[in-house]
Design brief:
320 residues; 8 helices; alpha+beta; three-stranded antiparallel β-sheet; single chain
Length: 320
């Protein structure tokens, strides 16, 4: 009898140990336990710690209450301004109602992932390219609202949604680069023109001040020469100041005036000796009944300052 009693006690203890091991459950701090008794949801949600369930009658499902980070696969879409883009995102969510996450949806992680992809495609189609590139905060808020609306019934709260990257075609990248370069060049020209305007005003004021003091211009010139000569990498050509040239010109004017020269004596013309041109007389020829020619009268005396006449070279006529 005693032996049979001992065996029964040992068997009962073993059965109790097995039952306790099967019924004992440990719920971690970041988890909540949802109990289904014979397929029916119990109202009480088991908190963290040690808990007991009826083996074969109750079933305990643990739900993670931590924030889950889920990447959204890249989605291809066409923006409202007909640009093909590829956008990927990341979503942060957590379970706030463990019973609804178990009962209302089969797999809340898969459901949230599919809803995020669908909402991301919808956001791409409703937005312009400039909004995707520069106004992401607004798009993130819209995407969060689109995903959070159905997720509330699943016991899931969307904490945050972020668009990670926007991939553009190469042609679009080149076009945007040219646009940005043109815009920067335009701003550079506007800034340069504004600087030139301000500098011209200041130079006009400086010139107005220097006009009253000519020496100020020379000092400014010397300052410029000093600034240029400090580099010691170029040849410096220093022009003469205009005032120095004027000083030299005034200094040379008295020396250039010659002394008064005496009046020039008139040149006396020497009288030209008269040369009498004696014509040649042909010798008389003896002929019968012919008389000798009469001698020609002497020429008239020439004037004192007259140029002597050149003797005639014509031959006298002889009479036969």
């Amino acid at each position: 009898m005693v032996q049979e009693l001992v065996i029964a006690i040992v068997a009962a203890a073993s059965a109790g140990a097995l039952y306790t091991a099967a019924a004992a459950k440990i719920v971690k701090q970041y988890e909540r336990g949802v109990v289904l008794r014979l397929g029916r949801l119990r109202d009480d949600v088991r908190g963290p710690g040690f808990t007991m369930v009826l083996p074969g009658v109750e079933r305990l499902r643990k739900v993670n209450m931590q924030i889950v980070t889920m990447p959204v696969p890249a989605q291809d879409g066409i923006t409202r301004d007909n640009v093909t883009v590829r956008v990927d995102a990341v979503i942060y969510f957590k379970v706030v109602d463990a019973a609804s996450a178990v009962i209302q949806v089969e797999d809340y992680r898969f459901a949230v992932s599919q809803m995020a992809q669908t909402s991301l495609r919808s956001i791409i189609g409703k937005s312009d390219l400039d909004d995707l590139l520069s106004n992401r905060e607004k798009l993130n808020q819209g995407l969060e609202l689109m995903i959070d609306s159905p997720a509330v019934g699943w016991g899931v709260q969307i904490d945050r949604v972020e668009i990670k990257d926007v991939s553009l075609p190469e042609t679009m990248k080149r076009s945007m680069a040219r646009q940005a370069e043109a815009d920067r060049e335009r701003r550079a020209r506007v800034i340069n023109a504004d600087a030139e305007l301000q500098a011209s005003k200041k130079l006009a004021e400086a010139a107005k001040e220097m006009s009253s003091q000519p020496a100020a211009l020379q000092l400014r010139l010397l300052q410029t020469v000093v600034a240029v000569a400090a580099e010691k990498n170029s040849t410096l050509v220093l022009p003469f100041p205009v005032e120095l040239l004027r000083f030299l010109e005034r200094a040379q004017q008295p020396a250039q005036q010659p002394a008064q020269q005496p009046a020039q004596q008139p040149v006396q013309q020497q009288p030209v000796q008269q040369q009498s041109a004696q014509p040649q007389v042909a010798p008389p020829q003896a002929s019968s009944g012919a008389s000798a020619p009469a001698p020609s009268p002497p020429p008239a005396p020439a004037a004192p300052n007259a140029v002597p006449a050149r003797p005639s070279r014509s031959k006298p006529l002889a009479r036969h």
